[in-house]
Design a protein that fits this description.
Elements: E1 4-19, E2 22-36, E3 39-45, H1 55-79, H2 87-105, H3 109-113, E4 121-123, E5 126-128, H4 133-145, E6 150-154, H5 160-174, E7 179-183, H6 190-200, E8 205-209, H7 217-223, E9 229-232, H8 235-238, H9 241-246, E10 252-255, H10 257-260, H11 263-275, E11 279-282, H12 289-300, E12 327-328, E13 331-333
Parallel strand pairs: 5-6, 6-7, 7-8, 8-9, 9-10, 10-11
Antiparallel strand pairs: 1-2, 2-3, 4-13, 12-13
Helix pairs in contact: 1-2, 4-5, 11-12
Length: 351
C-alpha cells in the first residue's frame, strides 16, 4: 500500500486570464499527500499548459509515482517523476515530501533548506497589465499606495513608442523611487528588443523579462551589458538552466518551482545562478495556497532576494485552505510554524 495519495481540485479565477494558450478560467490540479517520518506532508501539482505538462499527463505522473513508492520509497517515487517531463507532478510530490521532512525536523521549510536563516518576510512585486498611459500610471500609483515599491509592467502588446509613453506616464506619476520591471513575454525581434532596452534605461527600468523568443539565447546574450538587465523566464522551458547560465544569456532568472520540478530544484538552481553572478527571482504560476507557500519558502531561503512574484493569491476566487501569510508594505510574511505553514488537515479540494 502506498503512502502517497492525490486528489483532484479546481479553483476558479477571480477574473479570466488571457494567455498565448487561450483563456484560463480556473486552475485545476491535484493535492498530494505523503506520509513520511511520522508526519503527513502536503503538496500541490497544478499544471499550466505551455509551461508544464497537461493535466492528464500530471495525473499519469502521480499514478506512476504512487505505483513506485511502496517498493522504492520516496526515492523511487521521485525517480518516476522526471522534472523535464512532468514538472508539476514532481512539484506536488516533492513539496509533500519536503513538508513532511520539515515537520519531522520541527522547522519551517525555509530553515530546512538553510538552518541558519531567520526570515520573517519576503519582498514582493506588484504586476500591472497592459493599458494606456493614464490607466497604467494609475494602477502603479495604486500599487505604491498599497505599499509596493517594485512593479512589473506588461509590455510588447503595443508599439514600442506606446510602451515608452506608458513608462513616461508612470515616472511622472510616481517618481524615481519605485523599481520598475518590464515583461515582454518574448514578442520582440532583435532590432525592437535592442531599441527597447536602450530606451528603457531612460526610465530606470531594472530589467526586461523575456524580450526575445524563448529559444534565442544568443540574442539575449547580445542584449546584456547595459544599465537594463535581461531576465529569462520562458527560456527555462526551452533550455536547461545550466545551458542558459553557460550561454551568459541572463542577468536574472525567473524561477517557478512548479515549472522546474519542485521547491528543492528551484532552491538549488537559485544558488547555482547566484554563484555565476545571476540573480534569482521566485514566482508562482497562479497556484493554490500550498504551492504559493512552497515558492515563498524557497524565496525566504535565499539571502538578499529581490522582490518576487508571489503576491498572486488574489487572482483566485477560492483556495485550498486559509492563507497564513500577510501582505503589507510590499512584503509577504513567512510562516514560522513547522513545514509549509498550513495544516494538511485543513487543505480541502472542494473549495
Amino acid at each position: 500500500m502506498t503512502d502517497l495519495t492525490y486528489e483532484r481540485f479546481s479553483l476558479p479565477l477571480a477574473e479570466p486570464l488571457g494567455t498565448s494558450q487561450g483563456t484560463i478560467r480556473d486552475r485545476s490540479g491535484y493535492v498530494v499527500r505523503y506520509d513520511h517520518r511520522g508526519h503527513t506532508g502536503v503538496g500541490e501539482a497544478t499544471p499550466l499548459p505551455g509551461w508544464t505538462e497537461t493535466l492528464s499527463a500530471c495525473e499519469d505522473g502521480l499514478a506512476a509515482a504512487a505505483a513506485a513508492e511502496p517498493e522504492g520509497g520516496h526515492t523511487g517515487a521521485l525517480l518516476a517523476l522526471a522534472a523535464d517531463e512532468v514538472p508539476a507532478a514532481r512539484h506536488g510530490f516533492a513539496t509533500a515530501l519536503l513538508d513532511a521532512d520539515a515537520r519531522a525536523d520541527g522547522v519551517p521549510l525555509y530553515q530546512w533548506f538553510d538552518e541558519e536563516r531567520d526570515c520573517r518576510s519576503v519582498p514582493v512585486n506588484a504586476t500591472v497589465g497592459d493599458a494606456g498611459p493614464t490607466e497604467t500610471a494609475r494602477d502603479v500609483a495604486e500599487a505604491v499606495d498599497a505599499g509596493f515599491d517594485c512593479c512589473k509592467l506588461k509590455v510588447g502588446a503595443r508599439t514600442l513608442s506606446a510602451d515608452l509613453d506608458r513608462l513616461r506616464a508612470v515616472r511622472e506619476r510616481v517618481g524615481d523611487g519605485v523599481t520598475l520591471r518590464a515583461d515582454a513575454n518574448g514578442v520582440w525581434d532583435r532590432e525592437t528588443a535592442a531599441e527597447a532596452v536602450e530606451a528603457f534605461a531612460d526610465y530606470g527600468v531594472a530589467y526586461v523579462e523575456q524580450p526575445l523568443p524563448a529559444e534565442d539565447l544568443a540574442g539575449h546574450a547580445d542584449l546584456r551589458g547595459g544599465p537594463v538587465g535581461i531576465a529569462l523566464d520562458e527560456s527555462l522551458i526551452e533550455h536547461r538552466v545550466d545551458t542558459v547560465i553557460d550561454a551568459d544569456a541572463a542577468d536574472v532568472l525567473i524561477l517557478k518551482p512548479m515549472v522546474v520540478g519542485g521547491p528543492g530544484n528551484a532552491h538549488t538552481l537559485a544558488l547555482r545562478a547566484r554563484e555565476r553572478g545571476i540573480e534569482p527571482v521566485v514566482t508562482t504560476t497562479i497556484d493554490g495556497v500550498v504551492a504559493r507557500l512552497a515558492a515563498l519558502h524557497v524565496a525566504a531561503a535565499i539571502p538578499g532576494i529581490a522582490p518576487c512574484g508571489l503576491a498572486t493569491g488574489d487572482r483566485l476566487a477560492g483556495d485550498l485552505a486559509p492563507d497564513p501569510t500577510t501582505l503589507a508594505d510590499g512584503t509577504l510574511s513567512v510562516p514560522q510554524t513547522d513545514g509549509l505553514g498550513v495544516d494538511p488537515g485543513e487543505v480541502a479540494t472542494d473549495a
